[in-house]
Design goal:
Elements (H helix, E strand, L loop, with lengths): L1 H5 L2 E11 L5 E10 L10 E4 L6 H4 L5 H12 L3 H4 L9 E8 L6 E6 L11 E4 L5 H10 L7 E2 L44 E2 L10 H14 L3 E6 L19 E4 L3 E4 L29 H4 E3 L6 E4 L7 H4 L2 H4 L12 H7 L5 E2 L8 H14 L12 E2 L4 E7 L5 E2 L4 E4 L2 E4 L7 E6 L10 H8 L1 H10 L7 E3 L1 H19 L13 H17 L2 H18 L3 H11 L4 H10 L23 E8 L2 E9 L4 H10 L1 H7 L4 E7 L3 E6 L1
Parallel strand pairs: 3-5, 14-15, 16-21, 22-25
Antiparallel strand pairs: 1-2, 1-4, 1-9, 3-6, 4-5, 7-8, 10-11, 10-13, 12-13, 16-17, 16-20, 18-19, 22-23, 24-25
Helix pairs in contact: 12-13, 13-14, 15-16, 16-17, 17-18
Length: about 650
């Protein structure tokens, strides 16, 4: 996502000299960036964005009215409307021409809103035979379409696939200025790599070869150069807001913009009861004269503070570093602390952060690294997205939605309390219009924070969408009540003899520990529920309960601390060491093996995992149904797949 946002494009810059009134190249020139310099011979017109700075000077008197009207119309459209959503191409001819740098042809210069000033140079060379947008524009305005690339395999592109075939297309491409028709050229743009045609000394070269050759020719003649372009633009850093860090600049009538001295930093926001918009487009700070008026650090004369503030990213781009050392008074963080903790191991956030906060944090961090303030080149090791939470919506027969407080759940049915009507239940994204938003405070008030926390972890896989289900909250509530009851009753019941849950305890510790590392919280909770069921059925030792409470601590910390104290432990549960497990005890001592006769399953046998192969064979053949299928047969081979299956081959 970040790579696409930055939008690196490798190509070339080509210079088109503007034709003067005398018909000769003038001092004015139009620079275009193209990723396909090999198609320069197919450029039959040029397009400038309506905002391009050369538009006014290029437009001839006869075209001024049309161009001005078009510029006004373009300003009313968003970038999205001008590009992706523009089904019909529009434009205006400036009356000007420029010289194609590879063949010397006069090329008409248009303006069109499908070219944006924010990308590249705000100007393009239009090659309608090999760009679909240019093709549609040329088709509408009857501009020349000249193919200069053919498919490498010699086939012709299939005709008739454009968004409308221009007049004259069936007999060849439209022609102007004596360029000639191109019989047989299909009515669509061919946008792939191929072999150069109609391109002078480039003819016969592959696309990569033609790109390299024409770029070298442009450079040698001073009419272009190899170039890399990016979609990413400069960060608009200032905001017209009251909140945000004030930009530490002072405007002096005599000395101009003067930085606030370091000794006077930081510049803090004024504490006022009200901050209202100024109505002039300026920051609300501009209306607080007592703060704006100051003195120039250079001459001491009257001056005014900069009233724009920094955007919120100015702080969020490096907040993770300040967290390392938040009480440092003379530096943002100590180098020792930064080396100990950086980089961040895991960042949890939505995908919308990937190309904004996280991308700019990387830029910010790289600058800090280059300046020697941090020891790592990258700030974050890993990013995980949490899944969205869905919620049940409840709709009556008239299509009206109802809140959960208006509903009574009876089994699988949702009943409207006021009327007894059975409501339509659906799972939707939480929305105000559907009245299915959940206020966590309500859940905490009814069940407690531990239940809410546990339920959120138990809802489903971390990165997948998951529905909010009030009935499932009850299940988590009952689980925690059962845990507490087991702790309360522990001293009143005799402990089981020995350590009957030794293997299960170690298996549960391993499962929960691994699931926490994988952020598979739902399966960790499920493992603890299975463990609790066994403890309630067959009794629990003190070690069993202490282990369960430690494992449960990250999910239900309040209950965990109470249970920890109830079991006679001191301090907070958070301070206790995490339980460890013995890998050998997580492996079951007994295994069940399927027994096959000539590849068909005839029974199974339970046997010690480490039993010798001879014992496995003997017990497998002694299984009653297996023995029945061995009667009167000769055993040719017994294949034992350790821990899985036994196959007896007979004849």
């Amino acid at each position: 996502m970040q790579r696409n946002w930055i939008g690196r494009s490798d190509g070339a810059e080509a210079i088109f000299k503007v034709v003067g009134p005398d018909g000769l190249p003038s001092k004015n020139e139009i620079k275009v960036f193209t990723t396909r310099p090999d198609t320069l011979y197919g450029a039959t017109y040029m397009v400038l964005s309506p905002e391009h700075p050369l538009v006014d000077s290029l437009t001839t008197p006869a075209q001024q009215a049309a161009v001005r009207a078009y510029q006004v119309a373009a300003r009313r459209k968003s970038d999205l409307e001008r590009t992706d959503l523009a089904k019909e191409k529009t434009g205006a001819f400036t009356g000007a021409f420029a010289i194609n740098p590879v063949n010397g042809e006069r090329t008409p210069v248009w303006i069109a809103d499908y070219v944006l000033s924010s990308y590249g140079t705000g100007a393009i060379m239009a090659v309608p035979a090999h760009d679909q947008r240019d093709y549609e524009f040329a088709s509408k305005f009857n501009l020349p379409i000249r193919p200069v690339v053919r498919p490498a395999d010699g086939r012709a592109p299939e005709p008739g696939q454009s968004r409308g075939e221009p007049a004259g297309c069936a007999g060849g491409a439209p022609s102007r200025e004596g360029l000639g028709t191109l019989p047989g050229f299909p009515c669509q743009a061919f946008c792939d790599d191929g072999i150069a045609i109609n391109s002078g000394d480039l003819d016969g070269l592959s696309t990569p070869e033609a790109k390299a050759k024409v770029t070298g020719q442009l450079e040698s003649r001073g009419l272009g150069r190899a170039m890399v372009s990016y979609r990413l633009r400069d960060w608009v850093f200032s905001r017209q807001r009251y909140w945000g860090e004030p930009i530490p600049i002072i405007h002096c009538p005599t000395h101009g913009t003067v930085p606030v001295p370091e000794s006077a930093l930081p510049v803090t926001l004024p504490e006022v009861e009200r901050y209202q918009p100024t109505g002039t487009g300026e920051s609300p700070l501009a209306g607080i004269e007592s703060w704006v008026k100051t003195t120039c650090p250079t001459c001491g004369g009257p001056a005014r503070r900069e009233t724009n503030t920094m955007p919120q990213w100015a702080g969020s781009c490096w907040y993770y570093l300040r967290y390392l050392d938040p009480k440092a008074e003379h530096e943002p963080w100590s180098k020792e602390t930064e080396k100990q903790w950086q980089p961040v191991d895991l960042y949890v956030g939505g995908a919308e952060h990937a190309v904004l906060h996280l991308l700019y944090s990387r830029f910010w961090h790289k600058v800090l690294y280059d300046l020697g303030h941090v020891s790592t080149k990258e700030p974050f090791k890993k990013l995980r997205h949490q899944g969205t939470v869905l919620a049940y919506s409840y709709q009556d027969a008239l299509g009206r939605y109802h809140e959960m407080s208006e509903i009574e759940l009876r089994g699988e049915d949702a009943i409207l309390k006021a009327t007894g009507e059975k409501l339509k239940v659906a799972v939707d994204k939480m929305a105000k219009t559907k009245l299915n938003g959940i206020n966590p405070d309500d859940v905490v008030a009814e069940y407690g924070a531990d239940v809410l926390r546990l339920y959120e972890m138990f809802m489903g896989e971390f990165e997948l969408p998951k529905p909010w289900d009030a009935r499932a909250i009850e299940g988590c509530y009952r689980f925690l009540k059962r845990v507490w009851r087991l702790v309360e009753e522990f001293d009143a019941k005799p402990a089981p003899a020995g350590d009957p849950h030794l293997r299960l305890r170690h298996k549960t510790i391993k499962k929960v520990t691994g699931d926490l590392d994988r952020m598979a919280f739902n399966t960790a909770v499920a493992a603890m529920m299975e463990y609790l069921n066994e403890l309630q059925s067959n009794g629990a030792t003190r070690e069993d309960l202490l282990t369960l409470i430690k494992l449960l601590g990250p999910f239900a910390p309040h209950l965990g601390d109470e249970a920890w104290e109830k079991l006679g432990q001191s301090g907070f549960l958070l301070q206790a060491p995490w339980p460890s497990y013995d890998e050998a005890l997580t492996i079951d001592a007994m295994v069940t093996l399927g027994v096959q006769v000539n590849g068909k399953l005839r029974g199974d046998v339970q046997i010690a995992r480490d039993a010798p192969e001879a014992e496995v064979r003997a017990k497998a053949m002694a299984v009653p149904n297996v023995a029945k299928h061995l009667e009167g047969k000769t055993v040719r081979k017994v294949i034992v797949v350790a821990g899985k299956i036994v196959n007896i081959v007979v004849s």
